[in-house]
Specification:
- The protein is α+β, with helices and mostly antiparallel strands.
- It contains 10 helices and 22 strands.
- Helix 2 packs parallel to helix 4, helix 7 packs across helix 8 and helix 7 packs across helix 9.
- The radius of gyration is 27 Å and the shape is globular.
């Protein structure tokens, strides 16, 4: 018997312990090589443990345990080889078959004839709706091999019975308490410390987004054909901020004790919302990148963030942050500084509003923008000047090309 020990790797300097957040397979599962086995969380990042070899997995810790770096998380018995059957998955995500469906509420049962529906898959949500409405498989099956909640609700709607997802839901007094992840706990501490330890103020402005929207509409097809990626809004904001940061260097500075460090480059952090909390990966040297390069970099780090694959170096070292609450419908907000940085730009949703241009009231797609800054480092003149400069560049996007006013193709590298 060959047993391989899989140990907790070091997520970064100064981190000695991690929390075992979730097992991704069942204990005793026979897995293939490179299968993801567990997720670990530290104060700064999420790590994934994978199987170095194929074999049978044996857990050495439980979900929620604090593990020291170097400790054994699980072992693999390589003498047991995976067969052709589907790998076991964690109970929280498994799909039961019709013959495995068991009654949960007394007096209610999902009935079936095993000989007819033995291979039918029922999702947990579908099973719950069936139990709540006292339905059997014969009531809802229509030649399907996988039964989802929407399939059950469609049957209820056709029969005139309201499902639990309708206007009125069954009264409930249930609640659930879960332990916060290390990442969420650290984020909470950092946000409170920012409010307590900085002299944070916010200044606002609004941007006419029509020039950028027209430019994107005009050149989108050629841009995709040339660069293999769509031209979004965020790349314009990153590029405009990288230029304004060069012109207002204090906005690109940080306090370090009694000293202030000013950076000659723009490493811009981009806030990404993930199921586990806010991640802030860094796009480095934005001042030297074109719009296509920025779009590709944003897509890469955002995808990693949502999959929990970001490394600590990819989330550290930013000099300025941009956050976009507009994707969730926010009209106005005061973003909180991402320490140890001194400023953060908040984007918001784009709405058609009446504005006065050349003495005429016209309708334009407008966005409110907000700059939160540490007044200990940045004066009001610099903060307002920075935001006005960003506004000017966004409303005249070809000005990002060293002041040119007719270089759309040069700007987009077409």
């Amino acid at each position: 018997m060959a047993i391989i020990e899989i140990r907790v790797p070091s997520p970064g300097e100064s981190i000695t312990h991690v929390e075992l957040y979730k097992w991704l397979v069942a204990d005793g599962a026979v897995v293939k090589k490179e299968t993801e086995i567990a997720e670990l969380e530290s104060e700064k990042a999420t790590l994934t443990l994978v199987a170095d070899e194929a074999g049978k997995v044996s857990f050495k810790a439980s979900e929620g345990d604090s593990l020291e770096v170097g400790a054994v998380a699980f072992t693999i018995d390589t003498s047991v080889k995976p067969g052709e059957e589907k790998q076991a998955v964690a109970p929280a995500t498994e799909v039961v078959t019709a013959t495995e469906a068991a009654p949960v509420t007394e007096g209610k049962e999902v009935k079936s004839r095993p000989d007819e529906h033995a291979n039918v898959k029922i999702t947990p949500l579908a099973k719950r709706v069936m139990e709540e409405n006292d339905l059997s498989l014969e009531d809802v099956m229509n030649g399907l091999r996988r039964l989802k909640r929407s399939d059950v609700e469609a049957v209820l709607a056709a029969s005139g019975v309201s499902s639990p997802s309708g206007l009125k839901k069954p009264a409930s007094r249930e609640s659930k308490t879960d332990r916060m992840s290390p990442l969420r706990r650290k984020l909470s501490e950092r946000l409170v410390s920012v409010k307590n330890e900085t002299a944070m103020l916010t200044t606002f402005n609004e941007v006419n987004m029509k020039p950028i929207m027209d430019l994107r509409k005009k050149h989108q097809d050629k841009f995709v054909e040339k660069h293999g990626i769509k031209l979004g809004m965020m790349s314009f904001f990153l590029k405009a901020c990288s230029i304004a940061l060069q012109e207002f260097p204090n906005v690109n500075s940080m306090m370090e004790g009694e000293n202030m460090t000013t950076y000659g480059y723009a490493d811009i952090s981009v806030a990404v919302s993930t199921p586990k909390g806010l991640m802030v990966p860094v796009i480095r040297n934005v001042e030297s990148m074109g719009l296509a390069e920025i779009e590709k970099a944003i897509m890469e780090v955002a995808d990693k963030a949502r999959k929990g694959k970001l490394s600590i170096p990819e989330m550290t070292g930013g000099t300025f942050t941009i956050t976009n609450g507009g994707v969730f419908g926010s009209m106005m907000s005061t973003p909180i500084i991402n320490p140890p940085q001194s400023a953060i730009l908040g984007m918001h949703n784009i709405l058609d509003r009446p504005v006065v241009i050349d003495g005429q009231i016209v309708v334009r797609p407008m966005m409110y923008v907000a700059l939160s800054y540490d007044h200990r480092v940045i004066d009001g003149r610099e903060s307002v000047g920075f935001l006005v400069r960003v506004k000017q560049l966004l409303e005249n996007p070809t000005d990002m090309l060293f002041g040119k006013s007719n270089g759309e193709k040069e700007l987009l590298e077409l």
